[in-house]
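Why do we bother with holo predictions? Because pocket geometry can differ from the apo form. Keep that in mind while you read this record for NAP.
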Amino acid sequence: MTGAVRAAPAACVIGWPVAHSRSPLIHNYWLQHYGIAGEYRREAVTPEDFAAFAGSLAARGYVGANVTVPHKEAAMTLSLPDDRARAIGAANTFWLDRGILRATNTDVEGFLANLDACAPDWDRGVRQAVILGAGGAARAVIYGLVARGIGRIVVVNRTFERAEALRPIFGTAVLPAHWQDLTAVLARAELLINTTTLGMEGQPNLDLDVGLLPSDAIVADLVYVPLVTGLLRGARARNLRTADGLGMLLHQAVRGFTLWFRRTPEVTPELRALIEADLAPPPDNAAHANAAKQAEH
Ligand code: NAP
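The structure, written out:
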């Protein structure tokens, strides 16, 4: 036999703090499930040390990494980001491509793949979508909706100027709206997506009358702590099709795993159950600790 023995590929999630990230649980589940000799670790890296860490990924034995709070914007300047990361203004996945550090944002495909799984053919019937929120997650959702040809995307945000700022980036399909206009736009929301933090444990509720939505509307919520938000509960009570935040979280992990470990993994009920158990409130119902779990995704 000739040649050196190659080390098993390793990836990690880089954050500060990083203890509550569910990415190790997801990726190590897949590594074990597919019998791949690889490793996925947590790396707690301060903002001061992030640039040096990103620049030394290969030397540390990594083929790539997830990037989480607070490094997603800084990741853009340290790598070669793709179009979607550039449009969103943040990257959550690094991979080394023949020595070049590339970056993408997998929330786009996470959102779309989850919607495809929960409401097949949704894009055949939807002409108008309503998005609540105009932050980083909203940008990923808008990118995905534009890519699927949705012609009218109403973006309702508390700070109107942030919604307005998305139109030059994503084009004339984006229609900014004031938060006070929410009730008026719901009647024509064939697809409603909450990308705000409202409804998340420890945050105010999303005060919205689901009864105003069309009878065939689809409702998605990016919040996954709690798993079933008030918005999703209301939509399900009306028998509307829904897509939850945990589904998006699981689907967004697929691309990173594929890039690093050269196998496209599946989002299965078994994986979902594993993460659901991890997200389950502790016996003393420590709401604060749980909210931190989502914030650090
Ligand atoms: P962000 O950039 O901080 O944006 C937060 C958004 O929420 C803004 O539009 C903000 O409005 C709005 N908001 C906050 N408090 C509000 C209030 N009291 N009333 C009305 N609007 C309010 O955060 P992000 O990165 O976009 O994340 C948003 C949510 O998506 C978080 O819950 C995050 O965990 C979740 N997320 C989930 C996934 C997943 O895989 N499931 C992926 C990404 C994000 P202003 O502009 O007026 O401040």
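The longest helix spans residues 245-261.
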